[in-house]
Amino acid sequence: MKYVLVTGGVLSGIGKGIIASSTGMILKAMGFRVTSIKIDPYLNIDAGTMSPFEHGEVFVLDDGGEVDLDLGNYERFLGVTLTRDNNITTGKIYNYVIEKERRGNYLGKTVQVVPHISDEIQAWIERVANVSVDGEEGAPDVCIIELGGTVGDIESMPFIEALRQFQFRVGTDNFCLLHVSLVPVIGVVGEQKTKPTQATVRELRALGLSPDIVVCRSQLPLTTDTKRKISSFCHVQPENVVSVHDVSNIYGVPLLLHHQGLPNLVLARLHLSRHHHHRSSLSSSSNLELIPTWLADWHQLSVNLDEMQKSTIAPIRIAMVGKYTGLSDSYLSVIKALEHASLEIKRRLVIDWVEATDLEDIPSDESQHHQQHHICEADRNPLAGSGYIDIEPSREEKREKAWKTLKEVHGILVPGGFGDRGVEGMILASSFARSSGKPYLGICLGMQVAVIEFARGVLGWKTANSEEFNKQADHSVVIFMPEISKTHMGATMRLGSRETIFRRHDSKLAKLYNVSPENNRIEERHRHRYEVNPEYVKNMEEKGLMFVGTDKEGVRMGVLELSSHDYFVGTQFHPEFKSRPRHPSPPFVGLLLACWRQEIKKNLNEGALGPMFEKWHMS
Fold first, then answer.
1. Which of 66, 346, 509, 510 is least surrounded by Cβ atoms within 10 Å, i.e. has the fewest?
2. What is the per-residue pLDDT across 229-244, written as a single tens digit (0 to 9) for each?
3. Sign, CA torsion 498/588/466/491
4. For 403-452, what is each residue's pLDDT tens digit?
């Protein structure tokens, strides 16, 4: 087993996850079997209870693991299926060691960070690295390990020490360390500054880990002098200083790493033999002289995305009506699934972010208060309106802008979420999509708000609601799942891969998934505590809201469609978690195709749509 450790310095969010994923993708494309591990040095057992505003989305795996979003990047880049054990946290390690101590496994010894915590980290890495994640028999060839956070953080010290020991445990010929750093440009002079990289490498070496390759993030390619300087002060050869400058899209990162010679550096360090040979690229749009055969598909993805961004055809605009729109990483997998669908149909996509609370009606007393507040501010502030003060838009202005956006877009997507904030705005978005005919995709909570809106707007149950938001509602059309814990939050939801059985094979989503009477089931990942109340299903179906997909017993509603609508679809599962660049998620493809079909009515390139509709069984 070979190990590639990716660490980061200077600051967080520097791109370690994409670089780790790209390195693994390159090795896999060269014929090696690859797995990956993400280390998060926080005390949480997993990411399940963490706020999306603070940590981004919670990515869900087949086995129900709620993990860091970087594991989503690994699965999308590598095409593997990881498990909850591929995400190591301080909480998991300490919890495991404490449980062993309580059972008496340490035979009365004093339990300490070294050796007990450090030994457990090493044992965990070795155990998980040898588990197949690609469906084939036997252990993988290479394990990519990403250490979250920044070198020098106090919480990551036990992991740094464990990994220092680990390089000798597995043998230095089986261990390669990539350290990702930042090379900023300060001021108008434009000089690339190497001191931050020197400092972080010095700190890493003081802790017992010496990088084999220094990967430098920068806005522009590193100059020869910059590389030479980093080489001199960081104890690596000049060719082992890799420049990763900004590229137009993330699919260009593996190509950039190849162009910088990273594959050869890693192979040489780990004493691995090349599995594939190079050939000239057939693409004239690339600035790389050679593209290896094993990168040709990925190169084409990058080229296609660049060409789409330059397209003169108007983009498909999707309104993302969410609760966490202040941080796009909160919906990273949804964004990627839309991107994959866009690549599939070869149409440029624009996401218009709509904060759900901005759509909600403003109480009259609150509106008057805001008007008075702004009048007072203008009276007190002599610079107000002069261009020197940026006054935050009023609630009325935000609401007007949100509704204007909703009316102008081609389709509406309401993603998942928890809590009652913004729910009424989501319900209004669902109502607008239903009544206006705009294509709509509701995921998890987005499906539930569609059910609530239908009960209110069509069935006339004005107080219909979910038990999550109002336990005393006259019609609880969404209810708490009976087997879910009411006292513990972490890992207590309906999680992971579950079967959905299609009851109607002529439904839009059944066609998109290409199911048949003989093969009428799909597997998608779930993450929810609440579900549609089966007592009201008959009432809704009689009015045209059809629940076309359920669980095996036919009790839990998994997919809904509005029969009289071009594309009004809700899924209780999260299809975004299994979307891949070359294998897009069917509900997202359906959403974009439905938007495109409505554009045909405005005479837009009808010929290009026919074959795509035939491919996805939407003719």
1. 346
2. 999 999 999 999 999 9
3. positive
4. 999 999 999 999 999 999 999 999 999 999 999 999 999 999 999 999 99
Cis ω for the linkage preceding 238 (within 30 of 0): no
Beta bridge partner(s), residue 351: 318
Whether a cis peptide bond, with omega within 30° of 0, leads into 115 is: yes
- CB 31, CB 276: distance < 8 Å: yes
Catalytic annotation, pick one of 453, 574, 595, 599: 574
In the set 444, 468, 528, 595, the catalytic residue is 444
Q: Is 104 exposed, middle or buried (0-12, 13-18, 19+ CB in 10 A)?
A: exposed
d(CA 607, CA 511) in angstroms, rounded, equals: 21
* Distance between start and end Cα atoms, the chain: 49
Query: Would you call 527 helix, strand, or coil by DSSP?
Result: strand
Residue from 75, 339, 453, 576 carrying the catalytic annotation = 576
Q: How far apart are CA 256 and CA 19, in angstroms?
A: 10
Do the beta carbons of residue 270 and residue 170 sit within 8 Å?
no
Q: Give the helix ranges, DSSP H, for 114-156.
A: 118-129
3-state helix, strand, coil in the chain (%, to 5): 45, 20, 35
Q: Give residues with Cβ within 8 angstroms of 602, minimum separation 6.
A: none
The Cα diameter of the chain in Å comes to: 79
Q: How far apart are CA 525 and CA 575, in angstroms?
A: 7
- Taking residues 89-98, report their average pLDDT: 96
The dihedral through the CA atoms of 328, 333, 336, 342 has a sign that is negative
The two beta strands, 278-280 and 290-292, are antiparallel
CA pair distance 21, 163, nearest whole angstrom = 20
Look up residue 67 and give its two tokens: 């993990």
The two tokens of residue 445 are 């909570």
β-sheet with 476-480: strand ranges across: 465-466, 476-480, 530-532
Q: What is the pLDDT of residues 182-212, one digit of tens each?
A: 999 987 777 899 999 999 999 999 999 999 9
Distance CA 118, CA 137 (A): 30
Q: Is 421 exposed, middle or buried (0-12, 13-18, 19+ CB in 10 A)?
A: middle
How many residues are given for the chain? 619
> Taking a C-beta distance cutoff of 8 angstroms, is the pair 342, 309 a contact?
no
| Range with top average pLDDT, 19-23, 551-555, 610-614 | 19-23
Both tokens assigned to 378? 């203008």
Give the DSSP letter string of 539-595.
Answer: HHHHTTEEEEEE-TTS-SEEEEEETTSSSEEEESSBGGGG-BTTB--HHHHHHHHHH
Q: Are 46 and 490 in contact (CB under 8 A)?
A: yes
| Side chain identity, residue 356 | A
- Give buried/exposed letters for 166-184 (b at 16+ CB in 10 A, else e): bbeebeeebbbbbbbbbbb
What are 393-407's pLDDT values in tens digits? 888 999 999 999 999
What the block records as the tokens of 514 is 């290409």
Beta partners for residue 547, in sequence order: 560
Residue 444 annotated to the active site:
yes
Q: In sequence order, which residues have a C-beta less than 8 Å from that of residue 337 and are 6 or more positions away?
A: 575, 576, 579, 584, 585, 588
The 10 Å Cβ neighbour count of residue 1 is 15
> What span, in angstroms and rounded, lies between the C-alpha atoms of 117 and 213?
28
Structure tokens at 534: 């089966």
